Amino acid sequence: MRKFWLAVVGFWLLSIVYFIVYVNDPALRLAVDQSSTLSIIHGVMDILLIGGGFALIAGLLHKIFHRQ
């Protein structure tokens, strides 16, 4: 189970790095706007960012409230 959470954290951090680069690079924004493949990748990164954040919060809450 530990490898699963490490993967979630890794993908979540990757999506954060992607969006930092996306916000600061006008050429990347233009490329995403013009390419359907890059738009799909952008959507996947968005899902990883939001879903990973929810998963990490839910996992943390589960760990806090289910200690034995």
Automatic annotation (TrEMBL):
Provenance organism: Lacticaseibacillus suilingensis
Keyword Transmembrane among UniProt keywords: yes
Domain of life: Bacteria
Transmembrane segments: 43-61
Protein name, per record: DUF3923 family protein
Keyword terms, alphabetized: Membrane, Transmembrane, Transmembrane helix
Upper taxonomic lineage: Bacteria, Bacillati, Bacillota, Bacilli, Lactobacillales
